[in-house]
Design a protein that fits this description.
By secondary structure, this protein is α/β, with parallel strands linked by helices. 36% of the residues lie in helices and 19% in strands. The chain contains 19 helices and 25 strands. The strands form 6 sheets. Strands 1, 2, 3, 4, 5, 6, 14, 15, 16, 17, 18 and 19 form a 12-stranded mixed beta sheet that branches. A 4-stranded mixed beta sheet has the order 20-22-23-21. A 3-stranded antiparallel beta sheet has the order 7-12-13, with helices on one face. Helix 7 runs antiparallel to helix 10 and helix 13 packs across helix 14.
């Protein structure tokens, strides 16, 4: 049997005009700003003018990712369609894909199979230009910073202590570390510099955490770009860049409305990575979705130790959100990889490997239930090679923790394959009362917060903070930033900071190499292991297989 590719399924979908989708979502035409027939931005005034009570908030997260795949975004979309099929008024809130993975190794991020958001090609490529606006604002600040130095440096900025980087939304390792300003006095001051990928830019985090244009401008003003000769921070506000940057970002702040293959309203907005940033869609999109539907389904990037931890400890704390239920996505195949099987061996039943790998799932479940106090369900994204014995094994293990397991077949069946999961989510929302709490308190020291996440969420024995990072922590605490939450940058492939430690490792230490402030976003970034904020392309990038014909029809995108 020949299967259609994701892009072929998406291209075969008969999309409804976006005004019809807006009507389904109870959005009046006056709030819509059309980007063609099938995309629109929604004006922020809707939030101020709506008096509807917020709906239920469902977070979808997953086990530690493997090359076998988990299907978190696919499950998020399929669950929303499943809720719609059982008669619920539902919206979905997702992140926008970065061009880095689209042309690199991961592919697109619009779901898969019969659980996708469309127009898939637009969403995975330029969409409504949000990422371009973020890159322009980031690089305007960089240009104004270097121009200030060139024009006399009245702020006495130490060029050896500039922390602001330029950015581009592409995997380009060549730009990680560069020297610029060469070619003589007229071309600037020579200095070491570098690029981050746009999704790792603090501007992305600022946009996703802002609650209004005024809040956006104030956050931009607080961004620290470097330090002066006396060690004092120099801000975007001092460079007088915040107003112009806000002008570039005012439209990007408005959430984007699209649809699922089954016509469920979907907000796709913002896109920070969860391994190097906070990994959640925008606060504005989530709040708007909550105002419009009785149920809002959202996702957070990578495993629950990354995206869900940051969603709960950073986004929910800042935005005053409380999830009503959490879905943890797993696959038999991925758990067998955590148990030591090679990707080529996953099609054969192997309960021994599953037994070795299932602790990874159980730790994520325990974290959501016991650390954060939230009701949850495990969604097993079923593959044709999964056996009943393997499925029963997972159900039994989760039941021991007091958590139900539901099979999901949304990739193959769309919303129909998510109905059972939808019913369990509704039951959790209506019958199980959570006792939501954070994994640390803000009045703890920076080191105590890092240690709390390491011990409570990762399952490690402690942290090893290197001397340079200790100095950075002391500096940040002396500047008054000690009460901010921490955003830990860590490999997505392990609970630890070593990507080779699969399953649920114990007894490890997390090594903290670098600590820096994102004063605009409002958190402290903690870099561990070998994490990088500018990825590189693989040996055979996805870009080699993407093409377009003379009619403009794209192929090979995913």
């Amino acid at each position: 049997m020949a299967y259609l590719s994701d892009i072929e399924i998406a291209q075969a979908c008969k999309m409804r005009p976006i005004s019809e989708i807006a009507s389904v979502a109870h959005i009046d035409e006056k709030y819509l700003e059309h980007y063609g027939r099938y995309k629109a931005k929604v004006d922020l005034s809707l939030l101020k003018e709506s008096d509807k009570k917020d709906g239920k908030l469902i977070l979808v997260t997953a086990i530690t990712p493997t090359p076998a795949g988990e299907g978190k975004t696919t499950t998020t979309i399929g669950l929303a369609d499943g809720l719609k099929r059982i008669g619920k008024d539902v919206t979905v809130a997702l992140r926008e894909p970065s061009l880095g993975p689209v042309f690199g190794i991961k592919g697109g991020a619009a779901g898969g199979g019969y659980a996708q958001v469309v127009p898939m090609e637009d969403i995975n490529l330029h969409f409504t230009g949000d990422f371009h606006a973020i890159g322009a604002a980031n690089n305007l600040l960089a240009a104004m910073l270097d121009n200030h130095i060139q024009q006399g440096n009245a702020l006495r900025i130490d060029v050896r202590n500039i922390t602001w980087k330029r950015c581009v939304d592409m995997n380009d390792r060549q730009l990680r570390f560069i020297v610029d300003g060469l070619g003589g006095k007229a071309n600037g001051v020579p200095r070491e510099d570098g690029f981050d990928i746009t999704v790792a830019s603090e501007i992305m985090a600022v946009l996703c955490l802002s609650s209004s244009i005024t809040d956006l401008k104030e956050r931009l003003s607080r961004i620290i770009v470097g330090y002066d000769y006396d060690g004092n921070p120099v801000t975007c506000g001092q460079l007088k860049a915040a107003g112009a940057m806000t002008a570039l970002l005012k439209d990007a702040l408005k959430p984007n409305l699209v649809q699922t293959l089954e016509g469920t309203p979907a907000f796709v907005h913002g896109g920070p990575f969860a391994n190097i940033a906070h990994g959640c869609n925008s606060v504005m999109a989530t709040k708007m979705a909550l105002k419009l539907g009785d149920y809002t389904v959202t996702e957070a990037g990578f495993g629950a130790d990354l995206g869900a931890e940051k969603f709960l400890d950073i986004k929910c704390r800042m935005a005053g959100l409380t999830p009503d239920a959490v879905v943890i996505v797993a696959t038999v195949r991925a758990l067998k990889m955590h148990g030591g099987l090679a990707k080529t061996e996953l099609a054969t039943e192997d309960l021994a490997a599953l037994e070795k790998g299932v602790p990874n799932l159980l730790r994520h479940v325990s974290n959501i239930k016991n650390v954060y106090g939230l009701p949850c369900v495990v969604a097993v994204n079923r593959f044709p090679t999964d056996t009943d014995n393997e499925i029963d094994f997972i159900i039994k293990k989760c039941r021991e923790l007091g958590v139900n397991t539901v099979l999901s077949t949304v990739w193959a069946e769309g919303g129909k394959g998510g109905e059972a999961l939808a019913k369990e989510v509704v039951r959790l929302c209506e019958e199980e009362k959570g006792d939501f709490r954070f994994s640390y308190e803000l009045d703890s020291s920076i080191a105590e917060k890092i240690e709390a996440v390491t011990k409570k969420v990762y399952g490690g024995k402690g942290v090893n903070i290197l001397p340079a990072a200790k100095k950075q922590i002391e500096k940040l605490e002396s500047l008054g930033y000690g009460s901010l939450p921490v955003c830990i940058a860590k490999t997505q492939y392990s609970f630890s900071d070593d990507p080779k430690l699969l399953g649920a490792p114990e007894g490890f230490e997390v090594t903290v190499k670098n600590v820096k402030i994102s004063a605009g976003a409002g958190f402290i970034v903690v870099l561990t292991g070998d994490i990088m904020t500018m990825p590189g392309l693989p040996k055979s990038p996805a870009a080699e297989r993407i093409d377009v014909d003379e009619n403009g029809r794209i192929s090979g995108l995913f």
